[in-house]
Structure formats: C-alpha cells, structure tokens
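Friendly challenge for the regulars: who can give me the structure tokens for this chain first? No prize, just bragging rights.
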Amino acid sequence: MACHGPQGNSQNPQIPSLAGQPKIFVENQLVLIREGLRDIPPMKGTLDGLSDADLIVLAQYFTAQTPVPVLAGPVDTARYERGRALAASMLCGSCHLPTYRGREQIPRLAGQHESFLRTVMQEYRDKPGPGRDTVMTNALLGVKNDQLDDLAHFLAHFK
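First reply, four minutes later:
Bragging rights claimed.
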C-alpha cells in the first residue's frame, strides 16, 4: 500500500489517493483486485492471502484518513470553467455528489491527481476492462480528449 502514499495520500500523479474514499468503494475494489477481476498489474499479488475481514480493515483505515490536497499546479480558469460546465451537463454530481466526494460504491474524484483522473477517464471511455463500472463507460462515450482534459483539471482543483 506504500504506492498510495502516507495515510493513503498518493505522492505519485499516476496513482490514486485512497484517503477519504468511501468504505464500500475501497472494499469492492480490493475484492475485485484480489480475485483477479480487475487487472492492475502493480497490484498483482499484493492482496493474495488476505481475507475479506482483512480487506474490510484496510478499507476502514483508508476511509478514516483525511485527504490531503495534491499539488495540482495553478488553476487555468478557462479549463476549470469548461470542466465545471461539462461536469454539470453530464450530471457527474448526481452520482459522485455535488462535492465530488463520492459515496458508497462511487469514488471521490475531488482533489485526485489530474493526470490520474485523465488517464482513468480515457480508459473507461476507450477500453473498459473487467471489473470496471459500465455506467462510467456509457457516461464518457463520445467525450472528446480535450473535454477529458478539462474535466480532469476541474476535478483535480475542485474545492
């Protein structure tokens, strides 16, 4: 779990922060990864042998941690506003909540690394793999690359 940073706050822009993520979301992801239903090569084997109870403890730990804002660089007001408008038109806040803090099985997006958000959204759009939420694949269908850039910028800087 060192890859996700101190107390689950990633220092690597390609790795998500787990601090403050909804418990059910973390539990689900850990089970999918352990069972090989979600392929994340750096995670292969790290959860082998852990019981469901162990995964629940891990999820509780990360959920209880306080997310630390990432150093996302300066806000580009035009990109931020385009991303905000697109998120509103796509109703992103109806599932991720208006604060983008996530709930239950839906992850927190606010304050994640911009490059991580951009990469994951493109993966959902272009090559959703097993264990991925098909709702997100449908939500991102037809979204252009520059729009993904704006969405990622908005969500990374959302306060």
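The CA atoms of residues 29 and 67 lie 18 Å apart. The longest helix spans residues 52-64. Your move, everyone else.
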